[in-house]
């Protein structure tokens, strides 16, 4: 049998997080090792995995969690990537300079080098998600980067609600869009609201897969932290929006999924959305709102 050279095996690390960054890093490395043992070649951790989701409150002490890129966490994960010859996507609380911070993610190659550095572009400011207090908006743009197995694009959590980010990353040639995430229900949400929110979250990302003819990988955390119950349910969708595999909603899991990149070409031939885009008629998309 001839091996499919376009098959990429991705790993999703769905984990709970403790108040202690060292414990979280140790756990992440343990779970990454499990993904490697299952054959994963590209492995993604959840948003801000090194800490609990501190953005539920605006407290100056939380800035102590930030670190430089490169820094201690990237160094530890770079060593892991080199040891196991894999690509690791590591979302971090970045300290860029004195008083300037970002919600970021780096792509670490099997040689340990930083292949890509993304800063979250869309920053929420909602009850229990007070990210504007902590993070400046990204200024590196939407990126796609070559790795030994696939061309990857990384966006982060709130970015997943914006079709523009997915489109621009896909137009840069990304085969797979990764969305490391920290999303869940707040304590006051009733059951119908919870169901509607979760369905909207998954549907939105599956729509990115369909509209752009790419794979989408959503990697969430799990467990209860203060007022948020993170809903897990990390998943991979193929270029037709079909969920290939989904993690549990209520426990940690290392999900490893094969992505056949040849489906991208096949799907885009059937659904040539990129071909039929009216790029001559979209100038209004750069406006905040089109007043009548």
Give the strand content.
25-35%
Task: Please provide the count of β strands.
Answer: 17
Looking at the structure, the CATH topology is: Nitrilase/N-carbamoyl-D-aminoacid amidohydrolase
Radius of gyration over all CA atoms, rounded: 18 Å
Mean pLDDT, rounded to whole units?
Answer: 96
Give the helix/strand class: alpha+beta
Total domains: 1
CATH class: Alpha Beta
Which strand order spans the largest sheet, edge to edge or round the barrel?
A: 5-4-3-2-1-17
Distinct helical segment count: 5
CATH superfamily: Carbon-nitrogen hydrolase
Unreliably modeled segments: none
Second rung of CATH, namely the architecture:
4-Layer Sandwich
Q: So what's the overall shape?
A: globular
The helix/strand order is: EHEHEEEEEEEHEEHEEEEEEH
> Main sheet, how many strands, which sense, barrel?
6 strands, mixed
Provide an overview of this structure.
This protein has 292 residues and is an alpha+beta fold. The chain has one domain: Carbon-nitrogen hydrolase (Nitrilase/N-carbamoyl-D-aminoacid amidohydrolase, 4-Layer Sandwich), CATH 3.60.110.10. The protein has 5 helices and 17 strands. The protein has helices at residues 21-37, 72-84, 163-171, 191-212, 262-270, and strands spanning 7-14, 42-44, 87-97, 100-108, 114-119, 125-126, 129-130, 145-146, 151-154, 176-180, 184-186, 215-219, 222-225, 228-231, 235-237, 243-246, 253-260. The strands form 4 sheets. It has a 6-stranded mixed sheet. A hairpin with a 2-residue loop joins strand 6 and strand 7 (129-130). It starts with 6 loop residues before the first strand and ends in a 22-residue tail after the last helix. The relative contact order is 0.15.
């Amino acid at each position: 049998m001839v091996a499919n050279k376009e098959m990429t095996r991705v790993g999703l690390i769905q984990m709970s997080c403790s108040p202690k960054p060292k414990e979280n890093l140790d756990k992440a490395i343990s779970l990454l090792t499990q993904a490697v043992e299952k054959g994963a070649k590209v492995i993604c951790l959840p948003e801000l995995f090194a800490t609990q989701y501190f953005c539920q409150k605006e407290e100056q002490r939380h800035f102590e969690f930030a670190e430089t890129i490169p820094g201690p966490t990237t160094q530890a994960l770079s060593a892991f990537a080199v040891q196991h010859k894999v690509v690791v996507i590591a979302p971090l609380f970045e300290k860029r300079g004195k008083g300037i911070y970002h919600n970021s993610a780096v792509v670490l190659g099997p040689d340990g080098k930083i292949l890509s550095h993304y800063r979250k572009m869309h920053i929420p400011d909602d009850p229990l998600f007070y990210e504007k207090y902590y993070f400046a908006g990204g200024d590196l743009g939407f990126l796609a980067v070559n790795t030994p197995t696939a061309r990857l694009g990384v966006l982060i959590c709130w970015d997943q609600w914006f079709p523009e980010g997915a489109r621009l990353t896909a137009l840069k040639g990304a085969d797979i869009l990764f969305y490391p995430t920290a999303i869940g229900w707040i304590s006051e949400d009733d059951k119908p609201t919870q169901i509607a929110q979760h369905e909207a979250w998954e549907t939105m990302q599956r729509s990115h897969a369909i509209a752009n003819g790419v794979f989408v990988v959503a990697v969430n955390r799990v467990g209860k932290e203060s007022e948020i119950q993170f809903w897990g349910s990390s998943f991979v969708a193929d270029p037709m929006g079909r969920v290939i595999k989904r993690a549990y909603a209520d426990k940690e899991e290392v999900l490893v999924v094969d992505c056949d990149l040849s489906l991208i070409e096949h799907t885009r031939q059937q659904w040539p959305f990129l071909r039929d885009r009216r790029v001559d008629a979209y100038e209004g998309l750069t406006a905040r709102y089109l007043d009548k």
